[in-house]
Specification:
Helix content: 25-40%
Strand order of the largest sheet: 1-3-2-6-7-8-9-10
Low-confidence stretches: 1-6, 277-285
Structural class: alpha/beta
CATH superfamily: Alpha/Beta hydrolase fold, catalytic domain
CATH topology: Rossmann fold
Radius of gyration: 21 Å
Number of helices: 7
Mean pLDDT: 82
CATH class: Alpha Beta
Number of domains: 1
Largest sheet: 8 strands, mixed
Number of strands: 10
């Protein structure tokens, strides 16, 4: 018979202490700007709720737009989540450029007729871009807090697509700063730059992720490897699958409206009862 060796209490304590020291070192090396260094000139939008009550401390939604969109996307999204429950703020993503080409068929061959470089806004995952996005998020939070009465313990970071991936990365880098993360159709961050380097604190951070059906090519699905990672890390993750079988623009919009309605329910539950416990849920909505 093979004897299974279980870790001793001393080894468990030593591992926990090592994890705490590592996370403490990471926080000291953070590239986040201090409040006195915050920028007031970056492009962003702050959206107020209707019938704003200055004596009430509102939850704050920090929205990170999808690829090739900009901060104005929050004006479409925030009212569909709720027009009166939150203050919302959205920073503009990082400037990028890509080559656009117009081609024509000549003698059964594609020929480039015209090409040019086009600017757009996106969220990249290299360390410099993540650090800048992180600073934009906290600059936005400060600007929203200056203009409106914000509950600092009810700040949620949300995003769609590439913005959802960046919301996960920034939220997991700063788990004590947020009341929850919502990633709408965003892939889980790559393991570069250690997305779970503050995993102990991240275990108490509620996360909502949406995914798509097996037939969808534009909406990422969560792999078994990612699901095992959530389980092993002891993270509180709710995963909801929203299917869009027709792939028509109207169906896609209806799907998005359902997601945003559920986002409102999920965030308000945690804003009103931050100590509620949530087990991992897997379902189709």
């Amino acid at each position: 018979m093979t004897k299974v060796k279980t870790p001793s209490q001393d080894s468990i304590v030593a591992t926990n202490n090592s994890s705490l020291r590592f996370e403490s070192t990471v926080e000291k090396l953070s590239t986040r700007r201090r409040p006195s260094e915050r920028s007031h000139t970056f492009q962003h939008i702050v959206a107020s709720p209707i019938h704003y009550e200055p004596n009430y401390a509102y939850p704050l939604l920090v929205w990170l737009h999808s690829s090739e969109k900009n901060e104005k996307e929050v004006c479409e999204v925030a009212p569909k989540i709720s027009a009166q429950n939150y203050v919302a703020v959205a920073p503009r993503g990082l400037l990028r450029q890509k080559r656009r080409v117009i081609r024509s068929c000549v003698n059964n061959r594609l020929v480039d007729e015209k090409s040019w470089m086009e600017s757009y806004y996106d969220w990249s995952e290299d360390e410099a871009s993540v650090s800048e996005a992180e600073n934009l998020v906290f600059d936005s939070i400060e600007q929203a807090s200056i203009k409106f009465n914000i509950n600092p313990r009810r700040i949620f970071i949300l995003g769609r697509g590439a913005g959802g991936t960046m919301a996960l990365r920034v939220g997991l880098r700063n788990p004590r700063e947020f009341a929850g993360i919502v990633s709408i159709d965003g892939a889980f961050p790559s393991f570069d730059n250690l997305p779970l380097r503050c995993w102990r604190a991240a275990r108490d951070l509620p996360i909502l992720m949406t995914t798509g059906s097996e037939n969808s090519t534009s909406i990422p699905r969560l792999s078994n490897r990612r699901l095992r990672l959530f389980h092993t890390a002891g993270m509180t993750v709710v995963i909801r699958q929203y299917n869009d079988k027709s792939n028509s623009p109207q169906s896609a919009q209806q799907r998005m409206n359902r997601i945003l309605s559920d986002v409102n329910k999920w965030t308000m539950e945690r804003a009103l009862n931050p100590h509620m416990t949530t087990s991992e849920l897997y379902g189709s909505f």
